Amino acid sequence: MPNPTHLDLQAVAKEVMREHGFNPDFAPEMQQQLAALRDHPPLLTDGKNVRDLRNLLWSSIDNDTSRDLDQMEFVERLQDGNVKIMIGVADLDAYIPKNSAIDLHAAAETTTVYAGIRNFPMLPEELSNGKTSLLENQDRLSVVIEFVVDDEGHVNSGDVYRALVRNHVQLQYNSVGAWLEGKATAPAKVESSTDLQDQLQLHDEVAQKLRNQRHEHGALSLETEELMPVVSNQEVVGIVEQPRNRATELIEDFMIAANGVVARMLEKVSSLRRIVKAPDRWDRIVQLAAEYGEKLPADPDSKALNDFLLRRKAANPKQFGDLSLAVIKLIGPGEYVLERPGDRIAGHFGLAVQDYTHSTAPNRRFADIVTQRLIKALLAGKPNPYSDNELSAIAANCTQKENAARKVEREMTKRLAAVAMQRRIGAIFSAVVTGVTPHGTFVRIAQPHVEGLLAHGQQGVDVGDKMRVKLIRVDAQRGYIDFARV
Q: Measured by CB atoms within 10 angstroms of the end CB, which terminus of the chain is less buried, N or C?
């Protein structure tokens, strides 16, 4: 059955992008730059400045449909029992000079936007899905972030350098995660190679040590979910959750550690930092904990909060997602800031780290391209390619556009959800309050995890409150889903 609204969701997504300040179209000058790159691609060697590491058993793990592969990994157990981790990051700077047409577009957009029904790439896909993607069996320039992890999960040393690399095995989160968790047999590429099996099991082992060490310091054990549309005959017929698993966590753990190594490397130059300040609404988090019979300190304390979260997850794993979402909303979003040598800025509250930047996803985030240029300038002994004023402006724009991207994604998720929920008006759901704003009170239902406006019965409620609601109205054109408290 076709959607009753006959919405062209692709066109709607493009219009929503424009409404939030994005330009989803690429200028003709960018096509000229791509043509020049086809005729004169960058050299894959640069004498002694680029190591040849193509012989290592590099592998990547990403979403099932991803083509814009930013990083891949190799691990090695050392004689002293510690583990060396190497993260190969795509060298975008080699293809996109600063202030070129493609760079200026990326600087304005700052991020790839995932709008559910389609993606809006920050870079032309000829680059992000092709020349600069770490695709299987392709030689690629990269910036390698190397560090050593001891048996307790401490990162004891770090190094960053340029290298020529080759992704030998391109893998996917779902199949690798299921295998690591013992829920499925190994993917065919893994099954056929005992060396790769050993690699991935060592990946998983050291990642869990990194994660445990972060949690010891107060990194928050939060669960986030991504909703994906179920499309049949180009019509949205439902929405499903993209579950996290051991493979997604493994890559997350490696990237957090790698970004810390890069942040510390750049301490002597002006650079970008990614921060999440201590939550302004800590009092509401304290109140939420009290509702479970727990007491948190009066002042923000990530370790105490994480201990509480871990206890709640163990006590009621099925409803932990609702508590996670409430805490995420109360902590608030992160931001990019300029850090000059000697500055002591806020760290990342959610990760419980002081030194953190973004450097491992240059195909998808402009901040990572900027950081990559800072790294390469430092390695070459050249001046910082960005002034403090430039970095400050870039940080502000990246923060603003990241917030705008979340709004695009949220608005499109609502439209996709509205299309999927049109036939369920009158149904009753369990829900949790996810937002109380001047624009209204918002709730998320338990199954499926759809968010909408609490149009009736919103008086006196706050983030984290649980209730039963009825679906009373859906407007797919505008993405409105209205509930009433029952």
A: N
| Helical axes 388-421 vs 9-19, angle rounded to 10° | 150
Structure tokens at 362: 């240059």
Radius of gyration, alpha carbons of the chain: 23
- Whether residue 450 lies inside any domain: the answer is no
Count of the separate structural domains present in the chain: 1
Domain-embedded: residue 39: yes
Evaluate whether 137 touches 434 at the Cβ level (below 8 Å).
no
In-domain check, residue 397: yes
Contacts of 145 (CB under 8 A, 6+ apart): 86, 87, 89, 158, 159, 160, 258, 261, 262, 359, 360
pLDDT in tens, 121-158: 999 999 999 999 999 999 999 999 999 999 999 998 89
Q: What is the DSSP string of 263-311?
A: HHHGGGS-EEEEEBPPPTTHHHHHHHHHHTT----SS--HHHHHHHHHH
Boundaries of domain holding 35:
9-276+333-415
Determine, yes or no, domain membership for 401.
Answer: yes
- Provide the 10 A C-beta neighbour count for residue 267: 12
pTM: 0.88
Tokens of 263: 């942040």
